[in-house]
Write a structure and sequence with these properties.
- 2 copies of one chain form a homodimer.
- The first copy, chain A, contains 16 helices and 16 strands.
- Chain A is elongated.
- In chain A, the strands form 3 sheets. Chain A has an 8-stranded mixed β-sheet with strand order 1-5-6-11-10-9-7-8. A 5-stranded mixed β-sheet of chain A has the order 13-12-14-15-16, with helices on both faces. The first copy, chain A, has a 3-stranded antiparallel β-sheet with strand order 2-4-3.
- In chain A, 47% of the residues are buried.
- In chain A, helix 6 runs antiparallel to helix 11, helix 7 runs antiparallel to helix 8 and helix 10 runs antiparallel to helix 11.
- Chain A is α+β, with helices and mostly antiparallel strands.
- At the A-B interface, helix 1, strand 1, strand 2, helix 4 and strand 5 of A face helix 1, strand 1, strand 2, helix 4 and strand 5 of B.
């Protein structure tokens, strides 16, 4: 007794019980199906890497949060904190074997020793897809289409994919003569929601050393809103005179034309020039995805275009575009919005058990149902019917097959629908069609 | 340049490129489908645990191979080295919420700092399933049926599930008076393949202090072979007189009757009393699965019945039965035996690209095909047809859709079957049916 160890998980880590794990598996399956439907192919990289591969690649915060240690062979190693840095290492290492364009998807666990007080976990799943080795507009459009199909495939009806292009702000800053203050301007704009236009104006003056005229132009730019057509017209007036700005506008036009050509619901896309986060990392298009009914949880799928993925590891220039689905954030949202997993956690049918000597008969019925494509669990022990039905209730089985001594004698089995309570007695030969009939209701 | 970091993976770790990863995903998908069809439900546990949860639970070798370190908060933590110890911790911690019987499956990565000279990896995937909280024969039978369905589902035709029951040897050792030497006897028997009967005889005398009579009886026992019926008859003669032995025999009879009732090919099961590995861990039935054409790689799916899963963590007694699929060993075998992945690595169709200004038209075609259930990749850049077809060849696309200026003018597109070389020109409206027709060949 005194040797017993308290079963517990580490702070910031968690177990997945069958209900939550079934939903998680469902999300991953939908993501895989969508990725594959666009020709993306799976890859995987190790959880552990040499520390110099990871260190300094995600900024100071990532470095601080790294699970880094020495292995038994004295190597300085660490757990990956995202999938982007390992992807860059992977592509640099295998470029010859991969060929370009290369369209990987990568679903994997990452670890960050974050402060858990914010309700964040230290272990979570990422679900990335990328198109590498091309600067094509088509690849940008498809990135948006994949996000669209992901959320539609998961059963969301109200979500907005916000799109922006780094180049339109770039054009503006060229025109007003603040191109060398891009980072400071981005940081200021990012606070728009928190401090309002007046606050941003003050910040622009202080940190970006902007004049009142420059501030005016930036705030006018940030205020451009409405339908994509309206925003594009507004942008053309404000930044069309700069070549970079015009490139960004033409690109965004092509992007929205592509979403339309693919038959997307136009209400699911918005052109939002106030997106600032991500713009210091991405060089062209930027995507963020918000749930209309839960905007406060932030973007559930973010990405964009980058000029060069792996310059730290190779001299080969690798432009690309991609995005990352925040699986765990999405799971929390699905729970809150009661957008359920399409997969039931339990088998369709529970074959109840009364005569241990007739195990072969129970197994025969289960096999028959399974061959017909149903999922079937056999209750392993002979217990009272009530106890077995309570088990089925708790698990979420839809049908119970009931056969005791009397039923075996008469050659009939009883099938009970566990939601409606409906019961039917059928001969052996009718087991499969009767179960199908009941499940179809 | 000089700042560039050499892209490389740690010794004993590896990247999965799309081909290998597609096969791995296929194996996992088959396993999930089979597990679910029997009512098993998914769980997951963290990769990292407190070291005292893992340490000392897998024997000295596991302890030595543990990736163990201190986190930033000074906690003594380690990466899981298998899924059994975390499952025991999990069940002890959540028993109340789970209810019994509990049928989890658990697919996850584990880490062992093994000597890589034996061609072993330090990171590999395990794929376990268990039925906990019951001693039912039905649960034992279903464990065998799941293994059977797994290998059949993966496309193997020649494999043998070797079955044994710890109790038959237990009965023999009772009868000959060597019950207190079980471990030594098991270790000796395990060497049968390597050192032959004479070698085992010497070892039994030396380490188990067996007399010539006792050795004779043990070797006779180990020599019982043939059909399950023949083995059962032989066992009854040798060990039926002991109650434990008789229990084992009756259990094995029920087990093989169950496999028959479920309509399994009897040639895929063997009753093998010489299985010794695993018998010191398991308390009842034991399973090992060998590929008939690659026996040298060892068992690809092993398991058995245990008396108590989680006694280290809880006083609740939790008997169960389960097995573990060796995914990476199986992947190596599939490659060697050329048992391919059922999933093609690439999309069915490559839509080639010639007119960047008509991106919308290419995307429209791709969307149409995708809605019809095909997987479709759009080549992102306008390049020469030859280059795009070489790309498709390398990726394994089945069809190429070809539309340039001329085709758009005439309202027809060309579809090329990339294996047969067959080409057809079809009007826009016929794109989907024509692709389907060509793919069906």
């Amino acid at each position: 007794m005194s040797d017993r160890i308290q079963p517990r998980t580490l702070k910031g880590f968690r177990d997945f019980l069958p209900g939550a794990m079934s939903t998680r598996e469902h999300v991953i399956e939908v993501a895989r199906r969508v990725y594959r439907s666009y020709g993306y192919r799976p890859i995987d990289t190790p959880a552990l890497e040499y520390s110099d591969i990871l260190f300094g690649k995600g900024g100071q915060e990532s470095d601080r949060q790294l699970y880094r240690f020495e292995d038994a062979g004295g190597r300085d190693i660490a757990l990956r904190f995202d999938l982007t840095v390992p992807l860059a290492r992977f592509v640099a290492q295998h470029a010859g074997a991969l060929g370009m364009p290369f369209k990987p998807y990568h679903i994997g666990t990452v670890w960050r020793g974050e402060n858990t007080q914010r309700g964040r976990y230290r272990e979570f799943l990422q679900c990335d897809f990328d198109t590498i080795g091309t600067e094509s507009l088509v690849a940008d459009i498809e990135t948006g289409l994949v996000i669209y199909d992901l959320f539609a495939g998961l059963g969301f009806e109200r979500y907005t994919i916000r799109v922006n292009n780094r180049k339109v702000l770039g054009g503006l800053l060229e025109l007003v003569g603040l191109a060398d203050q891009t980072s400071a301007v981005l940081r200021a704009i990012d606070k728009l929601g928190k401090v309002g236009t007046a606050g941003v104006a003050v910040e622009l003056g202080k940190t970006a050393h902007a004049t009142p005229d420059q501030i005016e132009r930036i705030l006018t730019f940030c205020g451009i809103s409405g339908s994509p057509e309206a925003v594009l017209a507004g942008l053309r007036a404000e930044v069309g005179a700069a070549q970079t700005g015009e490139e960004g506008i033409t690109h965004l036009e092509g992007l929205f034309a592509g979403f339309e050509a693919a038959g997307c619901d136009p209400d699911r896309f918005a052109l939002d020039v106030s997106i600032a986060r991500g713009l210091d990392y991405y060089t062209g298009v930027v995507f963020e995805t918000f749930l209309d009914d839960l905007p406060e949880i932030g973007s559930c799928c973010s990405g964009g275009r980058y000029d060069d993925l792996a310059s730290v590891y190779t001299k080969q220039r690798l432009p690309g575009v991609g995005a990352s689905l925040g699986v765990d954030r999405l799971l929390a949202a699905m729970e809150e919005l009661e957008i359920g997993a399409a997969t039931a956690a339990a088998a369709d049918v529970l074959v109840t058990m009364f005569e241990p000597d007739r195990a072969a008969d129970y197994l025969r019925m289960a096999t028959e149902l399974r061959r017909a494509g149903l999922t079937v669990e056999v209750y392993p022990d002979a217990r009272k019917l009530g106890a077995q039905l309570r088990y089925a209730d708790g698990r979420g089985h839809l049908l119970a097959v009931i056969a005791g001594a009397r039923e075996f004698e008469s050659g009939e089995v009883r099938i009970k629908h566990l939601t409606t309570g409906e019961e039917v007695d059928v001969g052996d030969a009718d087991l499969v069609p009767a179960c199908r009939r009941l499940l179809a209701r």
